[in-house]
Write a structure and sequence with these properties.
The complex is a heterodimer of chains A (165) and B (103). Chain A has helices spanning 2-22, 26-46, 50-75, 87-111, 128-136, 140-160. Chain A is mainly alpha-helical. Classes of the chains: A mainly alpha (165), B mainly alpha (103).
């Protein structure tokens, strides 16, 4: 059951990710990216990260992607112009990508050889209670710094998007 | 205990998504799609964090993934504001035409 669920959502994620890269219209890419994020949320759930799965859907699929789609529609972004790529990129791009993937897969197989099978419900440490406990005790300083970062981001976004610059 | 997928599958999926993000970042010309590729890469890294967190039975990986999400949200807000400004000044979304610092 775990394997079937993993395979279904992994395939959805990979297909949507390929779609993000190959679609020429930004809106199609954005919708595909939402598909990736949704299936990743299910995979988080399988790994026992309930809080992160919900945060993924609310923050990423909800907030960030809506922002993206707003901007795409605001700018009326059309289909990307096809341009000739350099010969080196055309010849080496795909082989290098596959080589990188093979290397990454080899190392993750080499150092984590199949051992621990992932079972749904085997790890219950990802609840909101546990996350909150860690966030407000052990990771209190990074959490506060994050709030400063978000404040800076708000001010920066408002200043950048103002009419006169 | 052999019915679940091994942890390495999650890591390989993460690598696949990251590689696709890199490909999108390198091959695409539209600044918005490049930005979406960056989000894809951040998501792939998050999956690795959560998978390792599962393996080590610790919540620390979740905290890291949470911080990555927060930073990605802040980055999206600022980055999209920059995209708006670039489009207002140059009337283009093609990164090849935003090259005044190149020469």
């Amino acid at each position: 059951m775990d394997v079937i669920l993993f395979l279904i959502f992994a395939i959805i994620a990979v297909v949507c990710a390929v779609n993000v890269v190959v679609q020429t219209h930004p809106i199609s890419s954005a919708i595909s990216l939402i598909g990736v994020m949704g299936s990743l949320a299910v995979l988080y759930l399988l790994l026992g990260a309930e809080f992160l799965a919900m945060a993924q859907i609310i923050v990423y699929a909800g907030a960030v992607m809506v922002l993206f789609i707003f901007v795409i529609m605001l700018l009326n972004a059309g289909t990307e112009a096809k341009r000739g790529r350099s010969l080196t990129a055309q010849l080496l791009g795909l082989p290098l990508l596959i080589a990188f993937l093979a290397l990454a897969s080899y190392f993750s197989q080499r150092f984590y050889p199949g051992g621990a099978a992932v079972h749904f419900g085997a790890f219950k440490g990802g609840t909101a209670q546990n996350i909150g406990m860690a966030l407000f005790t052990q990771y209190l300083l990074p959490f506060e710094v994050t709030s400063a970062l978000i404040l800076i981001a708000i001010v920066g976004a408002v200043v950048l998007a103002r009419k006169e610059l | 205990m052999t019915s679940g997928p091994p942890l390495a599958w999650y890591l390989i999926l993460s690598a696949v998504l990251f590689a696709l993000g890199v490909a999108g970042f390198l091959f695409r010309k539209s600044i918005i799609t490049i930005f979406m590729s960056i989000e894809l890469m951040l998501n792939a890294v998050n999956l690795s964090f959560v998978a390792f967190s599962y393996q080590l039975k610790q919540v620390n990986g979740h905290i890291f993934a949470f911080f990555v999400m927060v930073v990605a949200a802040a980055e999206a807000a600022v980055g999209l504001a920059i995209i708006l400004t670039v489009f207002k000044n140059r009337e283009t979304l093609n990164v090849d035409q935003v090259n005044s610092m190149k020469y």
